[in-house]
Inverse folding.
């Protein structure tokens, strides 16, 4: 026994309106998605998504600000990392400058960071990240415990 699904066309739809199954869209009134135009994702959008992705990786944080090569302040775990991105069509390359928490393995943290950046950028923007360069400029020590007098 086989069943045939029938499409419901609204009564006020113009004659000849393509069905969702014909256009591959949930909104057939918009027409074929390939014929609607193009979507361009700016470099800055990828930079913001990748910068936020860094904050989601345990052991990685935004690097401290630097003036003339000298760190000013500490790492900024609640801030987006400094990220540069270049988007060419649907492919991007990303460069991130980060701090890694001591005593975490730099290799493991940067591997997780690369994976997180690729996943988040791809999921949110639809842009494939071909290459992620990570520049670790600081190792951050945990906050010192206050000393107790005995």
């Amino acid at each position: 026994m086989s069943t045939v699904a029938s499409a419901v066309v609204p009564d006020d739809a113009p004659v000849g309106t393509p069905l969702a199954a014909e256009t591959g869209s949930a909104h057939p009134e918009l027409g074929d998605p390939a014929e609607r135009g193009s979507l361009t994702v700016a470099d800055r959008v990828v930079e913001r998504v990748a910068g936020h992705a860094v904050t989601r990786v345990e052991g990685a944080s935004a690097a401290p600000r630097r003036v003339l090569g000298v760190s000013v302040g500490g790492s900024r775990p609640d801030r987006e990392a400094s990220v540069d991105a270049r988007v060419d069509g649907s492919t991007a390359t990303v460069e991130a400058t980060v701090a890694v928490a001591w005593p975490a393995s730099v290799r493991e943290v940067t591997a997780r960071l690369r994976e997180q950046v690729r996943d988040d950028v791809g999921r949110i923007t639809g842009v494939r990240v071909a290459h992620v360069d990570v520049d670790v400029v600081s190792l951050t020590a945990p906050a010192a415990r206050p000393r107790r007098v005995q």
DSSP finds three helices and six strands in the chain. Helices lie at 20-23, 43-55, 106-125.
